[in-house]
Design goal:
Elements: H1 3-43, E1 51-55, H2 61-81, E2 87-90, H3 107-114, E3 120-124, E4 128-130, H4 132-139, E5 149-151, E6 153-154, E7 176-177, E8 183-186, H5 187-199, E9 206-207, H6 210-219, E10 228-229, E11 243-245, E12 261-266, H7 276-281, E13 289-294, E14 303-305, H8 316-327, E15 336-341, E16 344-346, H9 348-355, E17 365-367, E18 369-372, E19 379-382, E20 388-391, H10 392-401, H11 412-423, E21 427-429, H12 443-446, E22 453-455, H13 462-469
Parallel strand pairs: 1-2, 1-3, 5-10, 12-13, 12-15, 13-14, 17-21
Antiparallel strand pairs: 3-8, 4-11, 5-8, 6-7, 9-18, 15-20, 16-22, 17-20, 18-19
Helix pairs in contact: 3-5, 8-10, 10-11
């Protein structure tokens, strides 16, 4: 065959292939365009009345007030737009159960009461600002008849103890939402989750990091949807954002005085040399009143023995002895008690800024909130390693109640949580307290925070961690 005939033959084959390929491609494109048109057509009418916004509010008076203000702002914005009125719910008002903060227990209630009228459920923090037209524009991109889980992606840089080392081979492969930016569930997904939660037992009794555990529950080991990234769900302000976030460290005025905070550091003789020395090299200087409580008296530190022997596990006996001492005349009277471990790193100036938002005359238990058995009417507690902050009113109420340890080695933070739950004292959460090390959290998340504490000295230089994450270059005050 001549080269000319070969070329013509190739051209003919190419034309035939192109025709068939184009036909197939056209059919595929037509189907895609039809699906896109169908999706757009199906949702072009979604209005504000089809959206239920759930503000993840807390029972503490300060947080309830801030969430109420956010609700009013959203409703006022809707009134000005005249495009319908969304349902705006405060999470802590949905039922009397304090464990609703963990979201899963309240899903059946949300579906039963709002599932027939709402196409989307959008969860935000009390300091998350929402631009309603931009939010509608986002939601209209997705078929509300399908299961959707939308949010701003976060992921682990390395396997994390707080996530039970999930996806340890590739931690970045699993994403979970940044609650500050807001996250959304379509109603079909919420319906299925609400049905699951009523008959299915959770794999763990503990609620540790809500955002990650919600994403895991929704993903259902691949049977459910993964988180879909929405660039318009923002924490930092930029163009086209549907949400923005202010801060987890609000400005409520001048920090409380140093004299208003009494610091109790739990230690033992084994850690006097390596852990107590770190406290003294970092944050002790920012405390007006601080005592180290050990199993032995050591005048060189100094430490105080409370007559409670050291235990390998929990330190309930020691903690309750600290509570009684705080109320006694043996120590200066202060509005707030901070209880920390000897391997806790903390910014006392930032803590005093945060405490200005709370009334010490209220019974306040503040820190990083965990939960135990919350699906089965369990209780919440402030996890100890990140620091437990108690108002004088809370300590007085607890001690006078007679609630006590079932043994000296019981987990003190969980016993305190159980006691406060029985007394109707809410556990107030701040994500600025951390039970673990900086590396155990999403760097994207904590780099935008003004963290108050971290815990554990495992495989880190604690002094370097303190200087990088907690030490302010220009302290605001020396009150």
């Amino acid at each position: 065959m001549s080269r000319h005939n070969a070329v013509n033959g190739c051209k003919l084959v190419a034309v035939v292939l192109l025709w068939f390929g184009s036909s197939a491609a056209d059919k595929h494109t037509s189907r895609a365009h039809a699906a896109e048109h169908q999706e757009h057509t199906a949702h072009s009418s979604v209005g504000l009345e089809d959206v239920a916004l759930v503000i993840q509010s807390q029972r503490n008076s300060y947080h309830a007030h801030r969430a109420g203000q956010r609700k009013e702002e959203i409703l006022q914005q809707a009134a000005q737009l005249r495009q319908g009125v969304p349902v705006v719910l405060l999470l802590h008002e949905l039922s009397e159960y304090e464990g609703d903060w963990s979201i899963l227990p309240v899903l059946p209630h949300l579906y039963a009461n709002y599932g027939q009228s709402a196409s989307w459920f959008f969860f935000i923090e009390e300091e998350t600002r929402v631009t309603l037209p931009a939010l509608l524009q986002v939601l209209r991109r997705y078929q509300a008849q399908k299961e959707w889980f939308l949010g701003k992606h976060l992921h682990d840089n390395e396997a994390s103890i707080i996530h039970h080392y999930a996806f340890s081979e590739d931690p970045g492969s699993f994403s979970y939402p940044d609650p500050a930016a807001g996250w959304a569930l379509s109603t079909p997904l919420l319906q299925r989750l609400a049905e699951r939660i009523q008959y299915e037992h959770l794999k763990s009794d503990f609620t540790i990091d809500l955002k990650h555990e919600i994403a895991l529950y929704i993903w259902e080991e691949g049977a459910g949807p993964k988180l879909t990234a929405v660039p318009e769900f923002c924490t930092e302000r930029r163009e086209n954002c549907a949400t923005t976030f202010t801060t987890y460290l609000p400005n409520c005025g001048d920090p409380v005085s140093k004299k208003d905070v009494f610091v109790a550091v739990k230690t033992c003789q084994n850690f006097h040399s390596d852990r107590v020395s770190v406290v003294k090299a970092t944050w002790e200087k920012d405390a007006e009143f601080l005592e180290f409580y050990s199993d032995v008296t050591d005048a060189s530190i100094p430490t105080i023995s409370l007559g409670v022997p050291n235990t390998e596990r929990g330190h309930c006996g020691k903690t309750f002895a600290i509570l009684r001492r705080f109320l006694s005349k043996a120590v200066p009277k202060a509005d707030w008690l901070l209880i920390v471990d000897d391997d806790t790193l903390i910014s006392l100036p930032r803590l005093r800024r945060l405490l200005r938002c709370y009334d010490p005359k209220d019974a306040v238990s503040l820190g990083e909130r965990y939960g135990y058995g919350l699906i089965q009417n369990g209780y919440s507690y402030t996890t100890g390693g990140g620091g437990i902050v108690l108002s004088r009113a809370a300590v007085s109420r607890l001690v006078s109640s007679g609630c006590s340890c079932y043994s000296d080695e019981a987990p003190d933070d969980m016993v305190l949580g159980r006691c406060f739950t029985s007394l109707g004292v809410p556990i107030t959460h701040s994500p600025l307290f951390h039970q673990a090390r900086p590396d155990d959290y999403s760097e994207t998340l904590i780099s935008l925070q003004q963290a108050i504490s971290f815990h554990k000295h495992w495989n880190i230089d604690p002094v370097a961690v303190y200087k990088h994450w907690l030490q302010d270059t220009h302290p605001r005050d020396e009150l």
